[in-house]
Amino acid sequence: MKFLLVFDFDHTIVDENSDTWIVKCAPGKRLPHGLRNSYQPGHWTEYMGRVFVYLGDSGVKEEEMRRTMTTIPFTAGMGDLLRFIGENKELFDCIIVSDSNTVFIDWILKAADFHKVFDEVFTNPAAFSSTGYLTVQNFHAHHCPKCPKNLCKRKVLKEFVDKQLERGVSYIQVVYIGDGGNDLCPVMSLKKNDIAMPRHGYTLEKRISQLSQDRSPVECSVLVWSTAVEIASYLKLLIKE
């Protein structure tokens, strides 16, 4: 019997948004006004596709992107937390479910030597084309009205847990660690024994709080965190019990 740790990536593992961090590679470290304003709600992946075309057209190469992405800061205490999880892999399965992309997450985790901590990473597939442009695709199709069209994190989590059950792996508890609005859908699917860990001051915490005020609270326990030190403290308590 193991615990399942589910991490978001942007503003959770790293302290920034990886998709906006890449803009540091753009000429003048900013995007043209028209491109910046072309985002439509729920269509972030398509927007990032246009950003990558602009970077490619501006002559930004893969190596420069990689160099820039590996300077993104981790959230306070996250390095120690990931090392702790890595040392206790017999107790923890650990996955990332993120609206970033495979290239960015891979670069960042490998540069910091954290890639072995995670059993699987679920995020938008990205690759460099033969012309050297970064391209990104939607993670999957789904019918959830609450989520952006490229990714329903609840669907990802359910499919992962179901697949693990088929392999004979069941979890004592799911611990979901995130910050954003798109983390609410999976959190609402958590059971009484599970725990949601929203980051203090971010959208997920505000949405969970709003649900409680509307008298439709989430079923799981909620523990707010500001730094990864608090997450590590909770996990250490878990394995002592």
UniProtKB/TrEMBL annotation:
Keyword annotations of the record: Hydrolase, Magnesium, Metal-binding
Catalytic site: 8, 10
Cofactors, names only: Mg(2+)
UniProt keyword Metal-binding, yes or no: yes
InterPro entries: HAD-like_sf (IPR036412), HAD_hydro_PyrdxlP_Pase-like (IPR006384), HAD_sf (IPR023214), Pase_PHOSPHO-typ (IPR016965)
Binding-site list for Mg(2+): 8, 10, 179
Family label: Belongs to the HAD-like hydrolase superfamily. PHOSPHO family.
Name recorded for this polypeptide: PHOP2 phosphatase
Source organism: Asarcornis scutulata
